[in-house]
Amino acid sequence: MQFAYAAYMSLLLLTLAHDQHRWNQSLATSDPFYPSPWMDPNADGWQEAYAKARAFVSQMTLLEKVNLTTGTGWASEQCVGQVGAIPRLGLRSLCMHDAPVGIRGTDYNSVFPSGQTAAATFDRALIHQRGYAMGMEAKGKGVTVLLGPVAGPLGRMPEGGRNWEGFSPDPVLTGIGMMESVRGIQEAGTVACAKHFIGNEQEHFRQVGEAHGYGYNISETLSSNIDDKTMHELYLWPFADAVRAGVGSVMCSYQQVNNSYGCQNSKLLNNLLKDELGFQGFIMSDWQAQHTGAASAVAGLDMSMPGDTEFNTGVSYWGANLTLAVVNGTVPEYRIDDMALRIMAAYFKVGKTIEQPPINMDFWTSDTYGPVHWAAGKGYQQINFHVDVRGDHGNLIREIAAKGTVLLKNTGSLPLNKPKFVAVIGEDAGPNPNGPNSCPDRGCDNGTLAMGWGSGSANFPYLVTPDYALQAQAIKDGTRYESILTNYAWSQTKALVSQANATAIVFVNADSGEGYINVDGNEGDRKNLTLWRSGDALVKNVSSLCSNTIVVIHSTGPVLVTDWYDNPNITAILWAGIPGQESGNSITDVLYGKVNPSARTPFTWGATRESYGTDVMYKPNNGDGPPQQDFAEGVFIDYRYFDKADTPLIYEFGHGLSYTTFEYSNIRVEKSNAGTYTPTTGKTAAAPTFGNFSTNLEDYVFPTNLEYIYQYIYPYLNTSDARNASADPHYGGTAEEFLPPHATDSSPQPLLRAAGRSSPGGNRQLYDVLYTVTADIKNTGAIPGDEVPQLYVSLGGPDDPKVQLRDFDRIRIDPGQTVPFRGKLTRRDLSNWDPAVQDWVISEYPKTVFVGPSSRKLALKADLS
Ligand code: NOJ
Q1: Where does the signal sequence lie (predicted)?
Q2: pLDDT tens-digit map of 725-737
Q3: Which pLDDT score, from 0 to 100, does residue 25 have?
């Protein structure tokens, strides 16, 4: 007995000591922000959608509203996520489906180049067309919300597993990528979803269960600790652009930000997204990223995905619990009304009408017939109609991947012109012997890399390999052609590339993806920056024997080329990114000069892994508590860090060569008369409600005439006894006891000074153009080509990056012709976020603008008055 007591005491002390240790660390915290902002009927671009949504929501019952906000459960229906239907009003279930390169898990869809590759085009129009084509394909399959584009990860760490799904670590390039993608997707009639909001920069420790799977017993997910200035100037920036473009939905992220979960963080959702940025659409959780019921509702979450607490538990934080929480007044009525309103407004905003064609595909099987409720094995019927939605998108895909291929080095071997003998080396040039779709969610690196892995994958309708396309070109040209599609046939490779007249093209790659799949020890994030499958050895071996070696890299981000890039036998290096289904045709177009390259690298190629100054956290740093990832470098990621720390790099951000040459001259700065900035003042209207509801719990009990489907999430209570219905023995109390102050306040709220008055994206004066910068670009070579002039600014302060990209264009220029480049600088472009003022402020430091072909070739410069 005594022993037991002593053991108990020491255990207690141990626990206390352990907790003490944790308390001693000053963990980042997230300020509360309540109440959750309600929709603004006058918001730019949303007025008509609001009116339609209000008319619709006013007819809905409470159960129907809850049904619209809560997913039906993992694998309960055909899409990766669905919410309940409103049959009484003729609305079928909404389908939320992946995403970033094509419609996931179906057939007869296209596979597009990754966002990162699209970013490398530096071409707004192409990114827009890509979005539109993807939106059309989604619509054709019956998808309501396409779960992209991606601005989180932004790309803080070069090893970040999902960087390829997004655009670039530069917030302006990503912001433009977001804006054009959102517009494109939504013009096609599909709701876009900006994800993952926010600070979702690495795969490790984003989910507790996943971390347990690779041996770390953490109790809570990683916390991305981001200060207010960095948040605004870097990570929030591209989301602001998405909101300004009218994005219909945003997905909150798995991990915590400043030690509060992404999907219940009122600072992020209520304050930044809905209030400051004036976001009018709805926020859905990432899959299983919701951890609370009422708390997440008042923190700003509008849709629970996929609806169950964890996959296939059959119970939900919302569903019946949300019904109960509204009836008993914990979650205020205006909040559930606002959730439904936001969802329906996004729906109507993209031109949808209540009657929508049915979903004609099924994510869980490619069989034609099967159970429509997959998890329950219920409702056997035709579920796949194999609808071909590809249109002529193959041409666009080929063009984007070619125009997104960066010519990093060329000493004159390119473009190829009927070469005598081409030897193609490497498995990255060939097919996956088991077929392009053989690895689930593309979780392997076999054959040519044309897609990363995870939920961002899709099924290839075909995959043109480099070997296939290059051989076809060779046959046409009368070129001798041989390929060795393995990295390990040393003697045969040596024999081949040593022959006279050989042009050796070596294909190598580096892959990454989402954290639920481990490929060769890479838990989503890459474990290093080297080439996969002995790629470096392959390049070195071939180039030691062949004086005309061309290297093509397919990768999800930068790799280390330091050891070999300046070998004179390596006459050209190309980064072909993640090209999608037309891979071989696109690279052939570039190698043979059918497309004159003009892409620019959307990230820096550092000389060493350490040169980036940031790295993935691979081991938890807080015992079994939430790993703490301090974003201590502030805004200094990628080129901003290299410029500041002067660490060694090989190819700078924005670098990319052409087969012609350009000359820059004559920079001019023109000031616009934008007037002075006026912070927003005033108040919102009080929160509206639409309709009313009964408080008699009998009215919410599961209907006797409805068949219960196993694991399906319903809005109904299983009994009219509240305690039993909630399955909570402590049921009772008031909202005030459980929720933070002001969480249920419906009175008019002050408008934030940086927020817009009805202008999504923030105070509209932030987007006033203050300066136009012009320069002349001359094509001094012999062939036509596109040039990508880039406009950078130095804000001049001691804490500002040396230069920051602010605008760019991609311009076609004929030989001898001179074309003006015109770049614009908005008020936001010239401001810093001032955490004390809580607004954007133009500092008194002298500002300089630069124009040039990359972040380090900025010969033209001018002062701003
Ligand atoms: C989790 C991923 O993080 C998200 O991007 C995706 O949309 C959902 N799963 C649904 O597949």
Answers
A1: 1-17
A2: 988 888 888 888 8
A3: 52
Q: Could you tell which of 287, 311, 514 is best to mutate to test the pocket of ligand 1, judged by most ligand atoms within 8 Å of the CB?
A: 287
pLDDT in tens, 547-595: 999 999 999 999 999 999 999 999 999 999 999 999 999 999 999 999 9
Q: Whose CA is nearest to atom 11 of ligand 1?
A: 455
Given a cut of 80, whether residue 260 has pLDDT beyond it is yes
**Is residue 297 situated within a structural domain?**
no
Phi, psi for 180 (deg, rounded to 5): -70, -35
pTM over 0.90? The answer is yes
Q: Comparing C-alpha atoms, which of 291, 376, 307 is closest to residue 72?
A: 307
Across 394-421, average pLDDT: 98
Q: What phi, psi does 382 have (nearest 5°)?
A: -75, 125
178-186 average pLDDT score: 98
Domain that holds residue 846: 664-674+768-864
CA of 201 to the centre of ligand 1 (A): 14
The answer to whether 344 and 145 have CB atoms below 8 angstroms apart is no
252, 281, 284: which is closest to 346 by C-alpha?
281
Average pLDDT over residues 168-192: 98
For residue 810, tell me if it sits in a domain: yes
Q: What is the mean pLDDT of residues 585-607?
A: 98
Asked whether residue 827 is assigned to any structural domain, the reply reads yes
Assess if residue 839 is contained within a domain: yes
Does residue 810 contact residue 819 with C-beta atoms inside 8 Å? no
**How far is ligand 1, taken at its centre, from the CA of residue 671, in Å?**
44
- Give 80-91 pLDDT, tens digit per residue: 999 989 999 999
Residues enclosing ligand 1, CB less than 6 A?
A: 80, 98-99, 147, 195, 286-287, 455
State which of 251, 252, 263, 441 you would mutate to test the pocket of ligand 1, scoring each by most atoms of that ligand within 8 A of its C-beta: 251
Which residue do the tokens 């955490």 mark?
A: 835
What CATH number is attached to the domain comprising 847? Answer: 2.60.40.10
Ligand 1: residue whose CA is nearest its atom 8: 287
Task: Name the band, by pLDDT with cuts 50, 70 and 90, for residue 339.
Answer: very high
Distance in Å, CA 195 to ligand 1 centroid? 9
Query: Measured between alpha carbons, how far is residue 54 from residues 284, 516, 659, 789 in Å?
Result: 20, 40, 56, 46
Average pLDDT in the chain:
95
**What does the buried/exposed string (b/e) look like for 338-352 if buried means 16 or more CB atoms within 10 Å of the residue's CB?**
bbbbbbbbbbbbbeb
- Which DSSP category does 42 fall into? T
Q: Tell me the mean pLDDT in the region 474-494.
A: 98
Residue nearest to atom 6 of ligand 1 (CA): 455
Check: CB of residue 154 under 8 Å from CB of residue 171: yes
User: Is the model's pLDDT at 11 over the cut of 80?
Assistant: no
Cα 719 to Cα 700: distance, rounded to the nearest angstrom: 8
381 within 8 A of 369, measured Cβ to Cβ: yes
Residues in the chain: 865
Q: Tokens for 20?
A: 């003490």
Place of tokens 């619709």: 56
pLDDT in tens, 39-49: 999 999 999 99
* Residue nearest atom 5 of ligand 1, based on CA coordinates: 455
What is the 3-class SS of 338-381, one letter each residue? HHHHHHHHHHHHCCCCCCCCCCCCCCCCCCCEEEEECCCCEEEE
Structure tokens at 364: 């869980």
C-alpha span between 150 and 200 (Å, rounded): 10
